[in-house]
Amino acid sequence: MNSIEYLQAGEQELYPIFSEIDSLVKQNLRGVIDAFRHHRVGVHHFSGVTGYGHDDIGRETLDKVFAEIMGAEAAAVRIQFVSGTHAIACALFGTLRPGDEMLSVVGPPYDTLEEVIGLREEGQGSLKEFGISYRELPLTETGTINWQGLESAVTEKTRLALIQRSCGYSWRASLAISEIEKIVKIVKQKNSETVCFVDNCYGEFIEDREPIAVGADLVAGSLIKNPGGTIVMAGGYVAGRADLVEAATCRLTAPGIGSSGGATFEQNRLLFQGLFLAPQMVGEAMKGNHLTAYVFDKLGYAVNPLPFEKRRDVIQGIKLGSPEKLIAFCRAIQQYSPVGSYLDPVPGPMPGYDSQLVMAGGTFIDGSTSEFSADGPLREPYVVFCQGGTHWTHVAIALEAAIKAVGSSRDILQHP
Predict the structure, then answer these.
(1) How far apart, in whole angstroms, are the C-alpha atoms of residue 274 and residue 204?
(2) What angle do CA 292, 226, 338 make, to 5 degrees?
(3) What is the per-residue burial (b if ≥16 Cβ within 10 Å, else e) of 228-250?
(4) Over the stretch 138-195, which tens digit does the pLDDT of each residue have?
(5) For the packed helices 268-298 and 57-70, what is the interaxial angle rounded to 10 degrees?
(6) If you count Cβ atoms within 10 Å of the first and of the last residue's Cβ in the chain, which end, N or C, has fewer?
(7) List of domains in the chain
(8) DSSP, res 236
(9) pTM for the whole thing?
(10) What distance, in Å, lies between the first and last C-alpha atoms of the chain?
């Protein structure tokens, strides 16, 4: 079969799943619209203020809308968060104090959190340098949560349990909401004072509930991923218990200022509109992931998740097995990106990462992965992580080139 035939077969077999995703999009969009209606969002909320950002009714209303969608007491949606990592770091520094312990319950965290925690590099003000200890519960040999070990891992000293929803750059299944619910239940049974904090990046609107609805105390994520709907220019969010949200914003701004500061620089309309578009964008990305998994599974590559498995985030992993194929794949995706199609991705260093990365990111917002993108670290087993997709038909077009670029799992590339 050629690339067109693989894609056509995938589209036909995946049609029932695509229909299920459309139903989920409708349900999540209804929740967004209900929150907009409840808080009477109008054009007067699109104007912003300057300077300190005090009394910005658009920002204040957006916080309420976002909190309702997340099922949270409070939320802070801010363009001053420069990334999801920044929002997560503010949540961690806001919650933890010297002498506290943080426990990562899903193995090692995403690469960009290693320096925040203090696992590598020194002298930058990591949690470790502030006297906050860190432990992690390894995954099982099959890459699943060590449920039995979790019960004994939580102690009286454990102030915060870090739950990373997405697989990141690891070859494991991302977490379903039901698994997050189970983690929270076990943690709270062992220590009711432990804060259950979810790194929610790439997971928003994937299911019909968010982690706060199943007992998590705090979540954080990026606005140039799922909840920004591809059009938000920058920012991140925290949501959850009101005291924890305020503590996180006190790290973003300053104690005494917290969530009351932060000018929105006329970005309120985009923030509201991106949130409205987000469920649809996530649904299209999920369809694209199913199609990507289907095609490359047929070509003999290991894929995570499998083609017909329910999605748990907007990331699809493909184990390509060689640096040449990883680079070739990313170059093919870049050639069919709406922005920078003429560019040639090459491996290079990236702030916050320990390995060189190769990245296809022809997106309208720099650093966003909401349009179809692909990247991966140049380390074994050379996995490419496909992310996003504003419409699955764009994914299908780009995959035609990717299939031709890397061939089957038996093909060997010398010089892409």
Answers:
(1) 13
(2) 60
(3) bbbbbbbbbbbbbbeebbbbbbb
(4) 999 888 999 999 999 999 999 999 999 998 878 899 999 999 999 999 999 999 999 9
(5) 40
(6) N
(7) 3-26+276-406 (3.90.1150.60), 46-266 (3.40.640.10)
(8) E
(9) 0.93
(10) 22
